[in-house]
Each structure stands twice: as structure tokens, then as C-alpha cells.
Amino acid sequence: MKMSVSTPLWFSSSDEFAMGDIDVGFYLSILRRRLPYIVACVIATTLIALAIAGNMPRTYMSAAKILVEAPQIPAALVQSTVPTSSVGQLQIIQQQLTTRDNLVKLAAKLKIFAGEKEQPPVDYLVKNLRSRITFEQTEVSSADGASVFTVGFVAGSPALAASVANELATSILTSNQKRRNDSAGNTLQFFDDEVKRLDGELNHIEADVLQFKNNNRDTLPESLTFRRTEQSGLQERLISLDREQSDLRTRRSLLVETYMVTGKYPTGEPLTAEQQMLLDLNKALADQLTVFAETSPNIISLRARIAALRAKVIPEKRENGDAKAQSGLDLQLSDVDRRIDAIDKEKVQITARIAALDQSIVATPATDIRLNALERTVANTQTLYNTAIAKRAEALLGKQIETRSDGGRFSLLEEATEPLEPMRSKRRLIVFGGVAAGLALSFAIIALLEFLNKTIRRPTELVQMLQAQPLAVIPFIQTPYESRTPPLKRKLNSVTRMFS
């Protein structure tokens, strides 16, 4: 048989399976040569996985069903004082039940780890129980808003699984009812305290307003119109008194002048023409003095005429005058003087009262501002008080609803029972994992062996070693004897020749 020296048979056959730069035939030959390693690794890991799966304990799961009912009384009629929804309350209770302290108490109460040789550490206990407790929502009714939740527990015995699941369900129902009652009670207590606080604050502010009004009663805005009316009346009264006082003084002057002219006080007897003219001139002088000064020509002229006429009409006085006329004049003058003095005193009082009214009217705007601030505080506090009263009434209704369990509530729909069959274990998954681990381990061993093997088996490796392209590659050519002799026998013969 003729064969090309530069192209060996094993090199030609490997090119037929080459895919790009990857020599598939070469790697398949490695897998065929290393197949015993693969089989050994897969068998070993599979046996280990089967042993682990066979020694896994049986586990049982029991679950209790809890019905979350919608409120019996519509929220449009009475609003519940428990703001959290039923689902939210269940989540809160779930977190509370799975706290560290509660799980430790649960394990001690039901002796969950009684079969253990020694009590496990607290961290392991808590982590283990949390992984074995399940909460899930199974059914939801969109019509009435009711829903069903299940709480389950996984244990090594059916009785323990059922007892723990029922204990958890009972704890959920108790905690829910307690939470709702406490929430409603706390809400009612809050509004009771708020009503008492606002009532005391309102009484205090009202007392301040009353005291402020008493201290500023003369400048209160509600009496401003009355004070202005009183001020106008007093001013008119003052003008009237001035007019009356002027008339009294004129009368007094006339009395004195008449007595000086006639020698007697007016008794109703007719006067002479000179006497009447003298009286008229005195009246005119009194009127002119209200308009002109003493140095005015009109005043000087009137006084001269009065003096001339008086000298003409006044009779000579007798040594023994009329005592009766003098006495009557004194009485009239005394009455006039008393009235003038009374008018002066009344004018002083009226002037002081007008000044006080002016001062109170000026101070009224400032009093009004301060009073409005106090009254706004009273109004705001009263509004808060009324709101607190209304909220307290709602809280009282909410408390009654929760006491009668007419709000959203939890009820035990189905107790947990002892399961008849264990849970589906992960034995198959463990076995499949053992097979996969054996394959991975065998491939890793083969890769390590090939990496450590420095034998040249391909022309490409020879090229890489020589760093040059050879002219030809001469393969190993077996003799007819070597081709008929098994490989193991050939290796034994080689070893024998080496030591012979």
C-alpha cells in the first residue's frame, strides 16, 4: 500500500471533521480515549446523590384557611376608625408573628425541635422556622371584597405540622381582633383628650376676651355709635348752655341797668321813653361787644350816648333809698348768679366728658384690632372643638363597630388537619444534579490531564514547537505484527525489552 509521506493518515482523517479552526475529530478522539474517566465520575456522583436523596427525611405540610370578610356596615354610612386594609393588617401580623422573639416562643411552646439532640442556636432556629412558615392568598371575591388566605407549616410529622399551622392561625385571629380594638380605642381616647384640651383652651380664651372687654369697656367698638351720639348731644347741650348763660348775663345786665335808671327793679310798670331808650342802648351795646372791640368807634359812640342819656334820666338819689327795691333786685341777681354758676359747672363736666369721649373714640380702632384677634382665636378654637366633637362621635361609632365585629374581620374558614401524604421531595432533582456534577467533574479532569500532557499529537503542534513549516510530516507506520498485536501487549513487550 502506497502512502504520502507528507500527509499522514491520522492527519487526513482529522481534517474531515474540522470546523473552521476547531478540530472536532481530535476532541472526539480525546473523549473516546478518556471515556472511562467520564463514566467513573458520573457513576460516583450519581451514587452519592442517590445516597443523599435516600437519606432525606419525609416532610409534611398542613395549612389553615382564614377568611377575610368585608365590613358588615357600608363605609358610606359609618367610616371605620381602622385605616389599614385587611390585606395590610395581615401583612403586619405576618411580620409580627415571624419576629425573633415570637418564633422562639412558638418553638418552645409547641416543642418544634424536641427531636433534636440539642437545642439549635437561636439564629438557626429563627431562620429555619421562617423558611417553613408560608402565607399566601388563594382566593379573592371581587363581588363583596372578601378573600381567603392560607397559613401553613412544614414539619417532619403530620401532627406537628397541623398543630403549628393551627397555632399560627389562632395567633392571627387574636392579633387581628386585638389590633382593631386597640386601634379603635386609641382613636377614641385621642379625640377624648383632644376635646378636653380644646374645651379648657376655649374656656381660657373666652375668659381672656371677657377680661379684655371689662378692661376696655369705654373703647369697645360696639359702643362707638352710642358714644358718637352722646358726643353730639353733649356738644349741642354745651351750645345750649352757652346760649342760656349769655341770656342770663344779658338779663342780669338789664336788671342792674334798670335799677340804676329807675331806682327800682322791674315790676311790670311802664317805663318812660328815656328809660326805654336807655335799656335799648344797653342791649345794643351788649350785642355790639360780641362783634367789635372796646376801641371800635361804634362802641365808643354807644357808650357816649348811654352816658348822656343816663345823666338825663337818673333822678337824684335820696339819702334814704328804697330798701325794698334793693332787696328784690338782690334776690333776682342772686338767682341769676346761681344759675350762671351752675351752668359753668355743668359746662366743665360736659367738656370733660366730651374730651373723654374723644379719647375713647380715637382708641377704639386699636381696641377693635386686639378684640378681633381674640375673637378670631375663639372662633378658630371653637371650630377645632366642634370638629373634635364630631370626630369623637365617629370614633365612638367605630369603636362600637369593632366591638361588635361588624367591620372587616378575620374568621377561621378551615382548620389545619394532619396530612396523609408527605410533600413532594427534591430527590429527582438531587439525582439529576449528581449526574450533572459527575459530567462537570469528568470534563474538568479531562481538561486538566490534556493540559498537563505535552506529547505532540498533531502537525499543528509540531509547527508550533519548531516555529517553522516542515517540508513533510512522516507518521508512525506500524508493521503487520504491531497492527495485529493489542496495544497493551505491545506496551508490555516494550517494557520487557527495556529491562532485558
Structural features, described:
- By secondary structure, the chain is an alpha+beta fold.
- It folds into three domains: 9-56 and 424-499, no CATH class; 60-186 and 407-414, 2-Layer Sandwich (Alpha-Beta Plaits); 222-388, no CATH class.
- Helices cover 67% and strands 7% of the residues.
- It has 15 helices and six strands.
- The longest helix has 81 residues, at 323-403.
- Residues 1-20 and 316-321 have low confidence and may be disordered.
- Its main location: membrane.
- InterPro entries: Bact_polysacc_biosynth/exp, LPS_length_determ_N.
- It is a multi-pass membrane protein.
Strand order of the largest sheet: 4-5-3-6
Q: Which percent range fits the helix content?
A: 55-70%
Instruction: Give the averaged pLDDT, no decimals.
Output: 76
Query: What oligomerization state is this entry in?
Result: single chain
Q: Which segments are poorly predicted (pLDDT under 50) over 5 or more consecutive residues?
A: 1-20, 316-321
Strand content: 5-15%
Overall geometry comes to elongated
